[in-house]
Specification:
Strand order of the largest sheet: 1-3-2
CATH superfamily: Winged helix-like DNA-binding domain superfamily/Winged helix DNA-binding domain
Number of domains: 1
Helix content: 55-70%
Strand content: 15-25%
Protein name: Helix-turn-helix transcriptional regulator
Pfam family, one: PadR
Number of helices: 5
Organism: Pedobacter segetis
Distance between the termini: 26 Å
Order of helices and strands: HHEHHEEH
Length: about 110
């Protein structure tokens, strides 16, 4: 199992965190940023990224607008006020989960 197969439940949190850090991003930019930050260890594929973006938008956490760049239309995503609140909640939940996972992974089991 690689990190991509463990990623599924974290995609929305990653997207929200990136958008909290960088005010607006388009889909391909998000995927490239994840790849860059993780030195290619995590790849967000279109089949996972865009459904997550659309769900976040439908839930009212993202707003979008389009811009033409070099004769191509780019759809930019940014956080709504509710999206900022959701980001804080998801980050808190993720940190708690990681802390508990660390406890389990570091557990010394007696024979």
């Amino acid at each position: 199992m690689n990190s991509n197969s463990m990623l599924k439940g974290s995609i929305q949190t990653i997207i929200l965190k990136l958008l909290a850090h960088q005010e607006k991003m388009y889909g391909y930019e998000i995927s490239q940023k994840v790849k860059e930050i993780t030195n290619g260890q995590i790849i967000l594929k279109e089949g996972a990224l865009y459904p997550a973006l659309h769900k976040l938008e439908a839930d009212g956490f993202l707003e979008t607008y389009t811009e033409v760049f070099e004769n191509r239309v780019r759809k930019y995503y940014s956080l709504t006020k509710e999206g900022k609140k959701e980001t804080a909640l998801k980050l808190s939940d993720a940190k708690d989960f990681i802390a508990n996972l660390q406890l389990l992974l570091n557990l010394k089991i007696a024979d």
